[in-house]
Amino acid sequence: MSIINNINKAFDHRIRLGIMSILMVNDYADFNMLKELLGATDGNLASHTKALETGKYIKVEKQFIGRKPNTRYSATKLGKLEFQKHIDALEKLIRK
Q1: What is the pLDDT of residues 41-50, one digit of tens each?
Q2: Which domain of life is it from (predicted)?
Q3: Which pLDDT score, from 0 to 100, does residue 44 have?
Q4: What is the DSSP string of the chain?
Q5: pLDDT tens per residue across span 65-74
C-alpha cells in the first residue's frame, strides 16, 4: 500500500482544505463567513463548495434572514469521516 493511498483528492486544494477545516470545528458556516476567513472570491468559493457538495462532503442550506438570502454549509457525516482520514494520511506522510 502506498503512503499516499488515503489522501483524498477532493480536499487537496487549499480552499477546500480551509472549508472542511472550518466546518469540522463549527456546526455550520455561511457563505460570507467562509469568504472572509479564506480570503476567497465569490466565484472561487462557489466552485469549491459546489465540488464538496457534489461529493456529498458538505450540506447546503439556503434560507432568508429577514429579506436577505443566506446560504450556509455544514459538514456531512461522510464529509467528517473522509476529511479525518485525509488528515490522518497527511500526518502519516509527514512522519515518514
Answers
A1: 999 999 999 9
A2: Bacteria
A3: 96
A4: --TTTT--GGG-SHHHHHHHHHHHHSS-EEHHHHHHHHT--HHHHHHHHHHHHHTTSEEEEEEEETTEEEEEEEE-HHHHHHHHHHHHHHHHHHH-
A5: 999 999 999 9
Enumerate the domain spans of the chain: 14-87
Can you tell me the distance from the alpha carbon of 59 to that of 55, in angstroms, rounded to the nearest whole number?
A: 10
Q: What are phi and psi of 74, to 5 degrees?
A: -140, 155
Q: Where do we find the cell 432568508? A: 64
Q: Would you state the pLDDT for residue 96?
A: 80
**What predicted TM-score, i.e. pTM, was given to this entire model?**
0.92
What b/e readout covers 11-47, taking b as 16+ CB neighbours within 10 angstroms?
A: beeebbbbbbbbbeeeeebebeebbeebebeeeebee
Q: Does domain 14-87 have CATH number 1.10.10.10?
A: yes
Nearest Cα neighbor of 88 from 10, 1, 4, 2 is 4
